[in-house]
Amino acid sequence: MREISSSDNKLIRQAASLGEKKHRDALGLYLIEGPNFIRDALTFGGRLRFIFIRAGATSAEITAIREAAEEKGLAVYELAGMAFEKICSTQTSQGIIAVAEKRVWTEKEFFENEGSDLLVLDRVQDPGNLGTMLRSAEALGFGGVLLLKGCTDLYGPKLVRAAAGSLFRMPVYFADSPAEAVRLLEKHHKTMYATVMTGGIACYDADISKDAAIVIGNEGSGVCAELLEKSRKLTIPMDGDIESLNAGLAAGIVMYEAFRQKRKTF
């Protein structure tokens, strides 16, 4: 394990720059913090460049990660306190940070599972919502998540934490516009279902067990007009005087209904 003591080290400065989206985009890299997430990255194919360990962080968990990383030929650095703090984005760090490469899925890879359902996110802004949806999509057997331009950064620190290991396992593809999303989904024979507050079919009355693309819109303005025009409309029946559900919760309900329908066909 190599040692770095200066916070002005070139590698430290580059890692610290990944706190900003423009640098993550330019370098194709992002940060993962905490032993659980880094262990998942090592286990499930997260493409790690190097690992930084705070000097003195010698828990059994961190030691096991260091040994596993070194077996894979990854560079592991022990950082003095100031150097580590320069990179860290959390106030209660667990003493270990990794630099990872962004995973780029091709169109062929993303759509290769015929019959699978997809989640389509239209300008979802809250990192916690998007991370929760990514985890729910994996848990409920969805084939991937299609992100439209305007969604929050997939590789921002808050979203990386919220998505946990699903970020390393769940296929994600990007569409630059609603028209591009529609073109891709129609090309691959997916039926679009947009969630709306009123005027749609109840989610449990729609056949969303196969080749469904469930569209979740922006937290404030909902699904955009271009996608609504091309989609069948879905609502979540509710009692009480609640006007709307959190986007992450709404997505989870509809995806669970798709999962339930699929289980009935087994």
Describe this structure in words.
This protein is α/β, with parallel strands linked by helices. Helices cover 39% and strands 21% of the residues. It is built from 12 helices and 12 strands. It has helices spanning 10-17, 21-27, 35-43, 60-71, 81-87, 107-110, 127-139, 157-163, 166-169, 178-187, 225-230, 247-264; strands spanning 2-4, 29-33, 47-54, 75-79, 96-101, 118-121, 144-148, 172-175, 191-195, 201-202, 212-216, 232-235. The strands form 2 sheets. A 7-stranded parallel β-sheet has the order 8-7-6-11-9-12-10, sandwiched between helices. β6, α7 (127-139) and β7 form a beta-alpha-beta unit. α3 (35-43) packs parallel to α4 (60-71) and α7 (127-139) packs parallel to α8 (157-163). The longest helix is centred in the last third of the chain and has 18 residues, at 247-264. The chain is elongated.
How much of the sequence lies in strands comes to 15-25%
Overall, the morphology is elongated
Lateral arrangement of strands in the main beta sheet: 8-7-6-11-9-12-10
Q: Which runs of at least 5 residues are low in confidence (pLDDT < 50)?
A: none
Compressed to H and E, one letter per element, the order equals: EHHEHEHEHEHEHEHHEHEEEHEH
Number of helices: 12
Q: Please estimate the helix content.
A: 25-40%
Largest sheet descriptor: 7 strands, parallel
Quick check: average pLDDT? 93
Distance between the termini: 50 Å
